[in-house]
Amino acid sequence: MQGVGFRPFAYSLATGLGLAGLVGNDADGVFAEVEGTPEAVRAFVTALRRQAPPLASIERLATEPMPPTGAREFVIAPSELGGRPGTLVAADTATCEDCLAELDDPADRRFGYPFINCVNCGPRFTITKGVPYDRPLTTMAAFTMCAACAAEYHDPANRRFHAQPTCCPACGPRLRLSETRLSDTRLSDMRISEIGVSGAAATAAAVSGAGRLLKDGLVVAVKGIGGYHLAADATSQQAAAALRSRKHREDKPFAVMVAGIGEARLLCEVDAVAARLLTSRRRPIVLLPRLAPQPRPAGTGAGTGAVADAVAPGNSRLGVMLPYTPLHHLLLREVAGPIVLTSGNVCDEPIAYADDDAIGRLGTIADAFLLHDRPIHIRADDSVVSAVRGRESVIRRARGYAPEPLSVHPPFPRPVLACGAELKSTFCLAKENYAFVSQHIGDLENAETLRSFTAGVEHFKRLFDIKPEFVAHDLHPDYLSTKYAKELGLELVGVQHHHAHIASCLADNGLADNGLADNGAAGPVIGVAFDGTGYGTDGTIWGGEFLIADLRGALRAGHLAPVPMPGGAAAIRQPWRMAAAYLDAAYPDGPPDAMDVARRNSPAWETITAMARRGVNAPATSSAGRLFDAVAALLGVRDQVNYEGQAAVELEQLAAPSERGSYRARIELSDPLTIHGTDLVRAAVADIAAGVSAAVIAARFHNAVADMIVATCEALRERSGLGTVALSGGVFQNQRLLETVIDQLAERRFAVLRHSRVPCNDGGISLGQAVVAASRDR
Question: Is 405-527+541-557+760-777 assigned to CATH 3.90.950.20?
Fold first, then answer.
C-alpha cells in the first residue's frame, strides 16, 4: 500500500543492519534488494513484517536469492511510472501524535498550521487521482514545496520522506473564513467578508473567528478531508434547532465531535472497545449509550456538558467522534466544548465537496464558511460504527476505511463490478483476491447521488486498473443501480437481494473460514436476512427471510407470513398503515375496539384497512422491518417517520432493558416454513388492553422476535443438518435484537456469523453480489 512510509522504514532498517541495496515502489507494490551477511538479511526480512509502519498492512512477502552486486550503500530508488496500476491506496488517516506535537509547539515552523501531515497520517484517498501515489497524481500538485519542506521530503531519515501532502505555512494550502449574511435565499445576494488569506496570524484569526461564531450560536460550514461539514454548538438548543431546520432534518440524530476521550466519557458510556474505536487511526463516528448530564470540569467551556435536546431528540445513543484533522483540533480548542459536525448536505443529497457546489448548496444553511484551497478529488463522508459483544460493527463504511480492500479467497476468476442496491448505496469492483467496496454514497434516489455513484465507479476502475468483464446487480428492475448495470453492455448476473445479504456476511467472515465445497463455493449455512425491503424471486417484497445459502445459490427455507403494504411505499413512510394491515390480518372479524392507533388515524383508517383487505395498491410483504413498524405504531411510538427505520429505532430505545417476558409466534411446518408475525401483534394488543406499559410490551416484542429467529433456525437445523447461522440485513442494526439472537444461538450450539468489516444493511449488498457472481462464474 503506497503512502504509508514503507520505503523510509525499509531504508532505516537496512542501514541500521549494515545492508546495501535499494528499495522502491512501482505499480505492483514495494520491491527491495538487500545485500549483506546472511544474518543481517534474515533480520531484515523478519523485521519487515514485525516492525512495519502504523499504516502498512503486509498481505504477502515474497523473497528470492540474487547474485551479489557489490553495492556499498543502501538507496531509495525513484518511483517507476507507467505499467499496470495494481498497488493499493491508503484511506485517509487521523493526525498522528508527532504531528500534533508540532501543531502545539510555538518553536516549530508548523505551529498552529491546520494542514500538518506526515507519512503516518493525513489525507490519502480523497486527494489521490492515480497511481503510483506521487505528488503529481494528487491534488497537492499545485503546491510547490518550499526549500525546507523539500529537504524533509527528500531525506530518507525524515518521517516526511515522500509524504506526498507535505507542506507548511510558506508553501501549502491556506485557510480562510468567509462570513455570509443572506438577505434572502438567492446566492447572488450573499455578501462575503474574507478573513485570513495568508500567514500564520491570518490562519489563527480564521480559526478563532470560526470558534467565536460557533460560540455565538451560528452555523459554520467547515471544509474537511472528504467534504464539507456543518458545525454548530452542541450545547446550544437554539443553534442545533436552527441547523436542523435549515438542513430539513426533522429528527435524525446529529453526530457530535469532542476534543478527546475524556470529553466523550462526560457524555456517554465508553468501554474499552469503544475507546479503541474512537481513538483509532480511522476516527469513525461511534454510537455510544448516553449518560445523564454531568457538570463540566472548570476551564472546559461554558454549559452543563450535556448536548442539547435538538442534537439527538429522544435518542438513548449518541454518535461521537474525535478530531481527525489538525483543523478539527484547533477548532475544538477554540470552542472548548462539543460541537455538532454533520454532513454538509440538504436532506438526502450526497455530501458537498467541491467549493462552488458547497457554497451554492450550503449557502442558505451556514452563516459562515471555513474554507481552504486544497481540492478534494473524491468525496468521502464520515464512517459510523458501534461495538457489539466486544467487536466492531460497521454501519456506514466511508472515510478512514475506503478504499482499503477486503481480501477474498478463492480469487475472483474475472474482474467484476457489483452495483449494490438502492438505499445506502455502495458499489464493489473486484479482481484477483481483492474486493474494493466503495465508500458510502447515499440513497440512489436523485440525480446528484447517481452522478456520484457513476463517477466513483470510473475513479475506482482507473485507480485499481479494473476493467470488469461482467456486472452483478439487484433483481429489482426499477433500482437505478440495476438500470445502470444494464446500460453497460456487459454480461449480467442478477443476484436476489437477501441472498446478497447472506453472501456478504460469508465474505465478511472470510470464505475460507466457512469451508469450501468442491466448486469453490462457501457454505451452505442457515441465513437469516431481516430488513425492510427486497425484491423476491416471486416478484413480491421480501424482508423476513430464512435461507439455506452458499455463495452460488440460496433456497428460501422460511419466511414471515406475508401481509399487505397498503399504499406501497407510503406504508414505509407511515407505519400506522402497517398496523392497520397487521390488525386486519390478526383479527379477520375486526380488531378490538378503542385501538388508539385507529383513533389517531381516523377517518383514513377504514380506507386503508379496506385497501389492505382487497389487495388494491397493497403489495404483499414478508418484511421484518414492516412488522417492527406495525408494533411501533400500535404502541404510539411513531405513526409517521422522517428517516428510514425511525420507528424501529425508537421502538428499540423504548424497550425496558430488564424485561425478560416474551410472546410466541407459530411456525407452520410447511415448505418453506411460515412464521406468523400476527401472533406477536395479537399478544401485544392483549397486553395493551391489560394496561401493560409500552416499554414492557416493546421489550417482550424484541424478545419474541429473537425467540422466533432461534426457533426457526432450530427447525431448519433438524431439516438440513446445518449448524452455522449467518445474520444479515438492516434489522440487525438493532443491537438489543442482535445480542439476544447471538447469545441464544450460541447457547444452542450454533456457530454464528455476523458482520464486522462491511455493514449488515444495504451498504454491504455490493460485496455479496460480487462474491455470488464470482462463485457462479467459477
Answer: no
